[in-house]
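## Example pair
The file below holds two records. Each record gives the amino-acid sequence first, followed by its structure token line.
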Amino acid sequence: MGTTVVPSSMKVSIPQGDQKDDGFIGGPNPKDLDAGALFVLKSRGSWWHCGYHLTTSIVAPVLLSLPFAMSLLGWAGGTVCLALGAVVTFYSYNLLSLVLEWQAHLGQRQLRFRDMARDILGPAWGKYFVGPLQFAICYGAVVACTLLGGQSLKFIYLLYKPDGKMQLYQFISMFGGLTLFLAQVPSFHSLRHINLVSLVLCLAYSACALGGSIDVGNSVSAPPKDYSLVGSRVDRLFGVFNGISIIATTYGSGIIPEIQATLAPPVKGKMFKGLCVCYSVVVTTYFSVGISGYWAFGNQSKGTILTNFMGETKPLLPTWFLLMTNIFCLLQISAVTVVRIRICYLPI
């Protein structure tokens, strides 16, 4: 009978045949494990579930800023950076998953980045550097997503009531209450249905951004298309770094160890299939939104394509279309925020 090894800091192996649902029959007391290990240790997911989790961890409404990034890099630079980002991160994520598979085969299963740092660099690095660093990054992402969710709610409110008196903090509080409710899921595996909906939603608002860009770009009220890089030489140089950082941020948020820990044994090959599902969505959404938005607005592309759709004096698209797009974004932001909230517990 095979064995499944829980975090190496516990120095305990649990017979696979003695695992049942969320508990351990004849194994160690779950109270002896930390909260992060318990959260990811429910290893019953398939490679499809892995694809859902990966897509939600990487693809977020920040992709709507890709036309702006391309306006800082130009056609050649923007397209090359998008392609390089996809190739480099896919290779890196797959290589990391293979290392985790090999370590599990050797009997030292690593469930989190903290566990990897502990085994590679030593216990102090995992506990006092990588763990707090991951917590800080996820905490910042939760704050940013909550603010963005509140802004989306307020935008929807103002579409229906332009003279409304409600303040932004009220919408932030409402969005926070929603994510607090969704965050009560007992394990990462329990997020699979939410993350499937998230995958569909990111395809939906990306399709809206693509359709909106094509419609505006072909309309009589289309802004003049100028694809030159604007500003002084120094401004263009800093713009290149800004554009590269935006593209790198959109790609570089995968949480491989924690997601791979949710897979049911045998794990071999499942993570690669999950990455293929994820990157089919990534390539479809990133390239379609980035290229179509830059084609429609050129160097006038703003921080998010939705801002361009609002126009200078009046919306360039119907109100119902803008409302639908923002609802898709709002719902997907809630899924991304829940994933980040739950990841915040893992380094503890």
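Second record, same layout:
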Amino acid sequence: MKRKKRGEEEEEEEEKKMEIVWQTPANPPEKQDYIFCNGKRHVRPYYFEFIAHVKNRWVGKTIVDLFAEEFKGRPYEYYVSAVKCGRIQVDGEMVPVSYVVKSSQKISHFLHRHEPPVLALDVRVLKKEPDVVTVWKPASVPVHPCGQYRKNTVVGILQAEHDLAPVFRIPTASSKYSVHRLDRLVSGLLILARNASKADIFRQQIEAGKVQKQYVARVIGVFPEHEKVVDVNINHNAREGRSTAEFYAELFALVIFRFKVEVGDYCHDMPVKGKTACTKFTRISTDGIHSIVQCKPVTGRTHQIRVHLQYAGHPIANDTLYPSKEPVDLSTEGTTADRAATGSDRSLSPSFDQDCSCQNEESSGEDFSIDPMCTNCPNLGPKGYDGDEEGLWLHCVRYSGPGWTYECPYPDWATLS
């Protein structure tokens, strides 16, 4: 038998590495799935199957062009290879790179998934009751699987470290078991119902305006001593991932009235932009540079507290998405995490002071198996992720309703020395 050349042997070995039994992981998150390094909680990369049905705008495109145009996180050459080796399939079957997709077909993408890291902070269980569990959600950790996050979530960590899997069967953020939501960068009290009926009771009380919410924030400047109410509409731009205070319509109406400009019924028919929003603020303390402020949102709009504090001239001190309009030394590196929070997985998807298990946050091949086709390996996190983030100085401290109150301790940054 003719001996194979070294190059051919290496090529065959590389092909064997790519012969992986692909399947969407059915097993729940476990403790060993996490790697703690340089103050961050990482997830060991794992294989995952993303599934989507062909959208109208995809019809008529080749399978490779579809992926290259719609999911720009990977190079064109990767998608060519992924189709050839079967990592991308149509209706469960391999297709050629020239295959043109049709309406209603199911497209699968099997890949080596890398989740962004979060801060290496505990998800602390505050109260465990028959129908309710309350936890202290750390900043930077999303509540539910979303975007690039699946295991690095409150639900995943509770499942892995507190054996609370039977409680949190939550596939999406729209689950009936979620009583309220906290943005990824916000920390504090999170209430999770243990059954749908309890969640419905909470929801009915919230919709009826019977639930009071309280947050604490660290803001720039000396906040007014007396209670300040900001009652300004908020318009959320989902594409940009940010909200704005919409007061221009009211200002325009005031000008029209003051100067008695005759415009017929136009003024009355002019729509007011955004949704009504109201927040009550009370100063707790100040050191002349920053102030600790109690925040009571009357309504619940996206980024409402952050936008209203900016509108009031006292934005959250480390908030770079809604910063001060005046140049100011934030005395902190700030956070660029808002960009990551609004991102999505481009692969077809719609305890404190823990010891490090790796030395280099950018490379830790010894802690997980390297995939020869993966465009993120050998890094732990996905490429393009900015890891220099911190938690937002906004914290949920209390929710109360008819006959019940749940609280969370204040964070360290809420004390001015």
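Notes on the second record: Residues 6-18 form the longest helix (13 residues). The CA atoms of residues 37 and 246 lie 42 Å apart.
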